[in-house]
User: Which sequence fits this backbone?
């Protein structure tokens, strides 16, 4: 097999993967709309959005092809900051229920 | 002095390899993206905080709005795909192909912005503005326009940046790496929209 043919095959395989990820993200966007009408819930919506985001970061932004040191430098720090922001919920519930997480 | 001269100059033999094996400007774009992700995260957490604490938060997005949002999502995700193809063409030294797909991406970004403005105008006509809301909680307008406005500003910035980089690439001022680096930004804008749609629109549909 000549190098060009090998490169063409690789490019076709990459395009196929891109198209599959593209369709997957659109299907999940559709699932979110269905959920909004039949089974709304913040957690469900965010789980689907997180899967979409994972696909976008790994396949569209090619983070899966980068060195693992880059992934380690970027992902845990970002997730840590976003997870720490969850501390706002107790105060948000207090405003409406006068007690954090009251039933 | 270019980065190539800096790393391949007199000290090339003693300089260490880059720790992440990517160009410095690509690392800077990644750092910008994670800081911007935290900015959008803070905006969405602030939105969630107020939505949670307001008893009269409006659930007012009807079928027309949701259809519009679905079309906007389709346009933006498709623009990510065209940007991806444009980047591949640039990496394969197919200059005309790279430019064609980058400008298709720019056009799709403009379509997205136009659809977004149409959505805004219909809401403004219904009495929702930054400081006023006919539908209930007064802060709804401020948070809605704040979150979606920040995203729209990113889309428009991306449209301008991609146009400048594509024209520079055409003239030889920029190379395939620059196209790839700005494609990261564009995919990030797409990624943020995946969180804005459920948080701002889909959890507030009219029933």
Assistant:
């Amino acid at each position: 097999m000549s190098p060009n043919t090998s490169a063409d095959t690789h490019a076709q395989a990459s395009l196929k993967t891109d198209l599959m990820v593209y369709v997957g993200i659109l299907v999940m966007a559709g699932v979110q709309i269905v959920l909004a009408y039949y089974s709304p819930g913040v957690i469900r919506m965010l789980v689907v959005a997180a899967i979409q985001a994972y696909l976008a970061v790994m396949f569209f932004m090619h983070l899966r092809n980068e060195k693992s040191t880059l992934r380690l430098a970027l992902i845990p720090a970002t997730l840590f900051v976003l997870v720490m922001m969850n501390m706002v919920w107790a105060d948000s519930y207090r405003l409406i229920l006068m007690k954090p997480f009251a039933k | 002095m270019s980065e190539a001269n800096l790393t391949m100059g007199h000290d090339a033999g003693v300089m260490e390899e880059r720790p992440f094996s990517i160009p410095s400007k690509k690392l800077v774009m990644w750092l910008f993206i994670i800081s911007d992700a935290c900015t959008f995260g803070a905006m969405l957490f602030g939105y969630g905080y107020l939505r949670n604490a307001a008893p009269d938060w409006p659930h007012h997005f009807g079928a027309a709005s949701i259809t519009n949002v679905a079309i906007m999502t389709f346009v933006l995700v498709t623009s990510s795909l065209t940007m991806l193809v444009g980047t591949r063409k640039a990496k394969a030294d197919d200059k005309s192909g790279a430019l064609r797909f980058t400008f298709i991406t720019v056009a799709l970004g403009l379509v997205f912005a136009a659809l977004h403005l149409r959505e805004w105008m219909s809401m403004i006509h219904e009495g929702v503005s930054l400081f006023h809301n006919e539908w209930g909680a007064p802060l709804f307008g401020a948070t809605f326009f704040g979150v979606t406005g920040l995203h729209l500003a990113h889309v428009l910035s991306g449209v301008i940046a991609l146009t400048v980089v594509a024209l520079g690439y055409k003239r030889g001022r920029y190379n395939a790496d620059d196209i790839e680096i700005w494609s990261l930004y564009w995919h990030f804008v797409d990624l943020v929209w995946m969180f804005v749609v459920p948080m701002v629109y889909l959890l507030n549909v009219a029933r």
Notes: Chain B has one domain: 23-204. Chain B touches chain A through 47 residues (CB under 8 Å). Residues 72 and 114 of chain B are 9 Å apart (CA to CA).
